[in-house]
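Explain this fold:

***
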Amino acid sequence: MPRPQNDAIRVRIFIAIVIVAMFGAALHVQRAIRRADQEARIREAAARTAPLRTLADQGVPEGAMMLFLRQSGDPDGRDGVLGVAPLTDLSDVRFEESIRCDRVHMRGGRGLCLATRGRFPVEYVALIFDRSFSIVGELPLAGTPSRTQVSPRGRYAAATVFVTGHSYADGSFSTQTSIADLEAGTWLVEDLETFTVRRNGRLFQAIDFNFWGVTFTTDEVTFYATLWTAGRTYLVRGNLETRSMDVVAEDVECPSLSPDGTRIAFKQRTGGLLGPVAWQIGVLDLTTGARHSTAESRLVDDQVQWLDDARLLYALPAERPAAMDTWVVPADGSGEPSIFLPSSYSAAVVHP
């Protein structure tokens, strides 16, 4: 008599197995469709940027590389991995799987990777690597990675972290900017707030000073950076030997010095009084003080990099979820922006 009951149980088990199998198949198809759509978008973006992807006929030095972090939004867990490609052929990419960063920069045969490790507890570190992409040193960070730049010959590197807050649009944020001696593998300056600052020849100080966005000159000891205080931003020029800084301009954020040393590309704030904070890319002539906007009209929250003396690189969120693309725009205000390298951010040119 119990047989009909057993048959009913078997039927229910069979139906459950079929449902699970159908769900798994549907999930697999959905993932395949999403992956195919994403790959199609990347191919389409690559096709749009074909003229930029082969730069050999534009005087690119032999051996120059493009360094970047992968940010495709794929669920494969590989976002943040360091990518390297010849500047003459950006399609020839290799990934250094052992180096995963939040921000990265490299010059003069040395690089700095600002990284987040673990979850509970979270650990923030600055990883020093050499020209073979081997980790040769590690330094602790005081907060969430934000910006990093290496000096032209690779002796020093700046690292900015958020001690509190996670955005420069948040008026309550607090940063710490440190300078590492990459040769010695130690912090040369643990906090730029210990430097003396002058404005118009007079001592300039306040308890709410925040610094970020360091960019170095070719002498390795002179640098430019952002100073924020009382809701205003200033461009400062500093010296590592004298441990001092001078205010040279107002309303300049995240400076990036041009290869010829004559101009600063920066974020210029366009909102924030009554509406949300927004930024656009500007260029400042260090000799004349003249400044102009580029053709990029969208909100850019990045430390712009120079592809060469004529073009700027920066990252923007992509249409693909959780993805970023690196864009390029002329520095003189002409032309229009275009995608330079899909599924990437924190891109920088590395010369041999």
